């Protein structure tokens, strides 16, 4: 069955079962592999994308539920890696292995879009859905504060 | 920028706590610029028109220098730190440096030209620095020689700096002389720099891989896409591991492909026959292949599969722990260390204490589930994935498919975590088997549940300690018996002699405390559960155990645990510097209000001495918060302080997870935990503030950085809990212990 999705401002028609998680449509059907598979049960945040501007776990969002909505992945966050979160992440050298970082960056960008000056408590509340096995949290926290200054 | 003055004998570089952070020096690469590493890191980041000077580096006509990196990037920063070592000697302009992975196929064809291609043992810098410096120095001298010949001067008259050669008024670039330099053989290799001469190593340049990791363009194994590729989901036997005997009784009885073959996109289902040894072997299992991974995975989940469970189905964690506890009193333990007469000294001591400590299996739980992509054609096999040991991956594929190793080409991606898990290559052998059965290029990806079920875990261990305390409060003897699941018994059985696996009891055998009578022995009690190297290996659990008991000894003797350790290491200058730095920087005190406490842990691993002080608070109802961890360490020298600091933070977070929440348990022979709901990982809201202080003694010491900061964390937290609550935690994870107090 064909589903029409808008990802990073571009229209795609994909032939998938409607219950297919958005994650796998983005990765395998559309071929944007920056969004990662970590758990499949919305417990790690590696698959975080924006749906109509809000952070969402694409691994447990049915593709059919995203029809007609604006989906943004890490590839669409900025054309040139100049989103303040990406700039801050680069300045502070946040990533280690990097696998969770697309999700971290998307979660942080969504946080800053609704809260321009997040406190540490705000960061704890919003960023605790995203796990990082390399333990980059201290630099993530620092980079969110830095991105808040840059924005 | 943090500038390290390498010329001082001892110096301390501190990095700020959360909110401060280390500033990065030199230039910051922008992701919009040409990447310094290709998205596919096994590929050259530039056009392939450069001149290879030696196996380690290529100089392009535009002056770009591409350095070959023979370790694998799993977060530890080798794509930056190893090129820094080459650039230091090459006198190359860092802005012109790019990096690509060294080629494992060339390595095996060309007499192991890259020397060491596995990534582990915190060895990237420690074990390759000398030959990487040599490669850079040799290339520099050959460039100078080429210019000297052209200009009619001696090599000594030519200077090399920032990729430019000069002599008097003559001037030329490295690119101009690259072709000629490649033809030059030196009479003798130049001496390499000693640390006092470094001008670049020791600075916090930005990581070369960061730009690819902030925009989703870094290719991990799971991201590989090949023309004509299909996708595989697999389920191996639910009871993992085993030895040849039990594996023979544990089989795939049947699976019903007819039940799923009409599902969309499904191409086939294949039996995976057991192959290879228990270390890199394939378990009996099933693969379903489809046109997308989600379709393959969904169909696999719906396909009826019957297993013969075999005898290991009777095994559970309680039984495994009971067997280890029972072994504590069984005869025949293998003796590892005997200094003086520990038993006699303890019997005569003014005071005698003892304690039994326990640690469970723990999963690596890499964020990227295990996966591998294999394409087989008539004349070659191409293998893509996150390999910690690419030549090992190459060899298991050759073995599995019965092809010549020379015809197998590995393409190492970025690794979404490694921590030891990606050095075993069991998933590589399995993917090769699936690709052969499917007859097409296949990307095989494990579900998270499969990743836990087929994990290769950190061993469990039970250890009994006894100590004698003299009238002066100081120890007179220390007796240790440890019961361990031996990794070596699986990976290199010939190295276990008379039941002794010294690697498994590292931390006990190797403790440096000046205690007059010491005795260490061990029993090995293995199970069918696969075990493998986990970040910092045996000390990841052993240091929790011994460093907690050392605190018990200090308390029994009425001693301050910080001063106790300082006194017991007084002849070891590096320990003295690390401990005194920690004491000062942590504001060490045992005099905090009830419900809060500070604790210390001390360790040495891979040549690096690390001490940590944890500050915790515990509510009356027993809720634990780790507030802060201050770390002091001596690895001798630093290549890149910012990357080193990140490794300290990373190790501490993993150690904190081991201490408080990580646990793999076994029921009916199977791993109970299947995802991050049952195997939780430390999250942002559980993060302490971490402070890192490098207290470096320099000299000949070059300790590792990727692992050594993990072991002390659990002990520091456990010891802090004691000061907060009066409760001694003797088993990991601490979440099992009631910490309430009144």
Give a description of the structure.
The complex is a heterodimer of chains A (151) and B (742). Chain A is an alpha+beta fold. Chain A has 2 domains: 2-76, Ubiquitin-like (UB roll) (Roll); 84-150, [2Fe-2S]-binding domain (DNA polymerase, domain 1), CATH 1.10.150. Chain A has helices at 22-29, 84-92, 101-114, 120-127, 137-150; strands at 2-7, 10-15, 48-51, 54-57, 70-72. Chain A has a 5-stranded mixed β-sheet with strand order 2-1-5-3-4, sandwiched between helices. Chain A starts with a strand and ends with a helix. The mean pLDDT of chain A is 97. Chain B starts with 10 loop residues before the first strand and ends in a 17-residue tail after the last helix. In chain B, α1 packs parallel to α3 (124-151) and α17 (641-660) packs across α18 (711-725). In chain B, the strands form 7 sheets. Chain B has a 7-stranded mixed β-sheet. A 5-stranded mixed β-sheet of chain B has the order 1-28-25-24-23. A 5-stranded mixed β-sheet of chain B has the order 14-22-21-20-15, with helices on both faces. Chain B has 742 residues and is α+β, with helices and mostly antiparallel strands. In chain B, α10 (390-401) links the parallel β17 and β18 (408-412). Classes of the chains: A alpha+beta (151), B alpha+beta (742). The interface between A and B is large, with 67 and 73 residues.
Residue stretches of chain B low in confidence (pLDDT < 50, at least 5 long) are: 1-12, 14-32
Spatial ordering of strands, largest sheet of chain A: 2-1-5-3-4
| Rg of chain B (CA only) | 27 Å
* C-alpha termini separation of chain B: 48 Å
Q: How would you sum up the global shape of chain A?
A: globular
Q: Could you tell me how far the N terminus lies from the C terminus of chain A, measured between alpha carbons in angstroms?
A: 41 Å
Q: Could you name the CATH topology of the largest domain in chain B?
A: Aldehyde Oxidoreductase, domain 4
Q: Could you give a short account of the major beta sheet of chain A?
A: 5 strands, mixed
Q: Please count the helical segments of chain A.
A: 5
- Reported CATH architecture of the largest domain in chain B: 2-Layer Sandwich
CATH class of the largest domain in chain B: Alpha Beta
Task: Tell me the fraction of residues in β-strands of chain A, as a range.
Answer: 15-25%
Low-confidence stretches of chain A: none
What average pLDDT do the residues of chain A reach? 97
The CATH top-level class label of the largest domain in chain A? Alpha Beta
**Helix vs. strand class of chain A:** alpha+beta
